[in-house]
# Entry
Amino acid sequence: MVTSFRRHTLAGEMLVLQLAIVVVVLLAVAAVSLAQSEATFNRVEGRRVGALAEQLAANPLVRTELPRPESGEALAPLTHSVLVQSGVSSVTVADGSGRIVSSTNPTVVGDRLPLGPGVSRGRGWSGSLTWDGSHELVAQVPVLGAASTDLGRTLGTVMIGEASPTVWQRLGGASSYLLAYLGIASGLGLAGSWLLSRRVRRQTLGLEPREITGLAEHREAMLYGIAEGVVALDPQQRLTLVNEVGKQLLDLPETCVGMTLDDLGIDGRLRDVLTGAGADRRHRHDEVVIRRGRVLVMNRMTVTKNERPLGSVTTLRDRTELAQLEREIGSFRSSSELLRAQAHEFANQLHTISGLIQIGEQDEVVRYVRALTRRRQSLDMTLGRRVHEPTVAALLMAKYSLAAERRITLRISDTTALGRLEPEDSADVATVVGNLLDNAIDAAASGGDFHGDSGDVEPWVEVDIRQDASSVEIVVCDSGPGIAPALAQEVFRHGFTTKAAAEGERGIGLALTRLVCERRGGEIAVTNTAEGARFTARLSVHRPLEAVAEGTGR
# Structure
């Protein structure tokens, strides 16, 4: 048989806790009231019984009869008279030896009277005393002799006592409205406890403590177990939450939670994405940001409740390695595309030659083949004379065929001069040249006339590569629509390609180009000319291999 039980709710636990607090407070109030009542009783009644005891001890009848052997019978009417007139609980008279000779309680006559400190030496005393089964507030006063023979001698002791009230008597005597006050306080405490429990339940969205604990555990496991960075901001742009991956990707200190973006020195593109600056960015996804040499893809979501903004949550993914893989895959894809373009070009040339042969124009075939040969030799000679790095030369040759297929003229400037490079330098230079040429070819093929009417001029792209002892400068111009002035300074930070700059789409081609240049200690910039866009990239390289060979005498 399975026994089920109902768990206590948070509201119920809060109500029980508040009720317990109210009960404790009421008990404390009652204890204070009892203490005050006892102090008042001891002070007032102590003075009264002390005065009565002094009056009785000074009575001539007591002084006269107390030394006599049969003093009890003579003092009995006096003790009862004092009891009736004063309303005290007990009146007792003892002789010099401490034996009780007269008392309002006949059962104690003949017993010894318990004396307080100093009474046997002729001093009065008052305090609480428990005797004969009762607890009383008593005053003991010595009876001093008045006759010449007994002058100053202690003849006995007079004790007058007032029974101490019980707890209920003290509560009733403390205040006639104490019970009413306690009742009102209990009612208010119950009402406050109930309202507090309802408020807590509303603030916790009806969740119970075990559910809140489970959510907190799941939140910690999710935030610190995923491979993506998570950053949360409040409306004042303060970091309210960031996991370890987010700290690593953004290079944030361990104490960054609670700090503002200004305190952390976050500005520029990263700040715009985190804060959603600009109406056109608040609902965009997969924003590309370059941060400390990393390519980050960020997605921001605004958090609201009851149409009140609570802040935002942004997720970050590190695409640096993926971007490098894309670059490598892109090089293979570019090679296959270039081979396809060359095959298409050769197929067209063969079809032209075949057609000329079929119509019997053998002389025209010879002239056509010679023209193709001269153009190919001219390009080979130009590249061979000006570009000595085989990787870059092969890339330019392939891009020439790709541009020709799209009816775009690719020109190599007369000032181009590039020597042999180290393998790692060659790879980075080829990456920059390839990305800039791809963007320029796309821009030239897209047409448009951003700066003016260009007429029927055939689209073109021109590349200029110059090298000095420590750097390589790459300039790529095109006849495309150019870069809008509003995007001229943002195009690299946003990761736009030239085509994306015109169409408003996202890309990371230029972002990677900028990353390569900055890693090499260089820079990249774009300007608009009268004919189109002009990209200028500069990156540092090692000493040219020809110069090294000359320096070693080889």
In short: Confidence is low (pLDDT under 50) at residues 1-5, 449-455, 497-507, 547-554.
